[in-house]
Amino acid sequence: MLRKVVRSSKFRHVFGQAAKADQCYDDIRISQMTWDSNFCSVNPKFVAMIVDASGGGAFMVLPLSKTGRIDMSYPTVCGHTGPVLDIEFCPHNDNIIASGSEDCSVMIWEIPDGGLITSLTDPVVKLEGHSKRVGILSWHPTAHNVLMSAGCDNVVILWNVACGEAVVRLDTVHTDLIYSACWNRDGSRILTSCKDKKLRVLDPRKGTVIVEKEKPHEGSRPIRAVFVSDGKILSTGFSRMSERQVALWDPKNFGEPLTLQELDTSSGVLLPFFDPDTGVVYLCGKGDSSIRYFEVTDEAPYVHYLSMYSSKESQKGMGYMPKRGLEVNKCEIARFYKLHERKCEPIVMTVPRKEVQSLRKEVKDLKAAVEELTKRVSELESKH
The DUF1899 domain covers which part of the protein (predicted)? Predict the structure, then answer.
């Protein structure tokens, strides 16, 4: 019986391509803060980036079409009195963005359709309830006006943005700094990772812990986790020897991971972005110059390495475009907005058409034939 050598997958040939220079956003002073958030948020209308600012915190919001060099005097959103640590666009209204800051507050801003004409200093809503800096924000995926924030006071708060009130306050669950917090696809569960080396699945309505996993990764460096398909959990972390790892867990049986793979020995935290439509997870390391991507399936080893996009410049942060902002007629399945020190560069992930794949095969065969001919010529030359 013939053994299957290569696993069949629609996404085996996915490749990443950086945008041309005139399609990038240049001369932007990206924030130098050493905080492990994305520093960038994007939707089909705007791209927002946290920038350096004197005397407080600021972020810049640009219409997607405003590529090229950005003037130093371009207006910013600058209402915070401390550095901005995280920003996130609302999934239900492309003009609404939330920001969390070192000044312990969360602010909600409304961006006009054409972009900013003057700097914004007054938010639509100011949410106060944290006693330390707010570093994580996440909008509810299905309910309007529900925002989750997590601060360095080890507290998770669910806000009703419409009336500016805290609806649920989880202040006894976490004993240490919260590294990540996210919703599942329908917003019925929250997943957090914490410095106390625990993953927790929470019920947002009751404010209780449904299940928790101690030491998903042995190392002491930060852990990130996201929900993937069928309620499973994908986590990134470090081994005891500081090797970066990716693991897949089934919350119904949290004892052992479905798979645990070691990747490399870099020190940057791996930020996972999961696409539920394709089952592909993208791992972007802060300070890395590459994006690895894997396919999550039901068959062992469950997390299958696909490929890696590499470049020369390291990334300061990463924005991930929602599916409705992609050019699907060009076979685009994901688009990232990579932050450099002084610019933002779009990176497009594409599934090649069959014609392109066959052309690539022809090129590969031609290369092999040329190599074979070169080898034979050199052998003949050596004989004479």
Answer: 4-68
CATH number at residue 111: 2.130.10.10
For residues 269 and 36, give the distance between their C-alpha atoms in angstroms, rounded to a whole number: 7
280-286: average pLDDT: 94
Neighbouring CB atoms inside 10 A of 262's CB total 12
Residue 104 tokens, joined: 């312990």
Cβ pair 96, 121 in contact under 8 A = no
Q: Would you say residue 2 lies in a domain?
A: no
291 CB-near residues (< 8 Å, 6+ apart): 16, 282, 283, 284, 308, 309, 318, 336, 347
Residues 24 and 167 in one domain: yes
Tell me the whole-structure pTM to 2 decimals: 0.89
Do 210 and 163 meet the contact criterion of CB atoms below 8 Å apart? no
From residue 76, give the alpha-carbon distance in Å to each of 70, 128, 204, 253.
12, 22, 34, 47
Nearest to 115 by CA among 87, 95, 92: 95
Residues 285 and 338 in one domain: no
User: Are 251 and 362 part of one and the same domain?
Assistant: no
pLDDT reported for residue 6: 60
Q: Terminus-to-terminus CA distance in the chain, angstroms?
A: 47
- Strands 146-151 and 40-42, sheet pairing: unpaired
Whether residue 140 is contained in a domain is answered as yes
- Is 1 a residue whose pLDDT tops 60? no
**Are residues 188 and 152 part of one domain?**
no
Determine the average pLDDT of the residues in 273-280: 94
Closest listed residue to residue 300, CA positions, set 346, 359, 354, 257: 257
Alpha-carbon distance of 136 to 149, in angstroms, equals: 6
- Residue 167 burial by Cβ neighbours in a 10 Å radius (0-12, 13-18, 19+): middle
Q: Do residues 102 and 60 share a domain?
A: yes
Residue range of the domain that includes 299 = 177-315
Q: Is the residue at 7 inside a domain?
A: no
Reported for 266-269, long-range contacts at CB under 8 A and 24+ positions apart, including other chains, are 267/221, 267/242, 269/36, 269/221, 269/222, 269/224, 269/236
What's the angle, vertex CA 27, arms to CA 51 and CA 124, rounded to 5?
35
Q: In whole angstroms, what is the distance from residue 78 CA to residue 87 CA?
A: 13
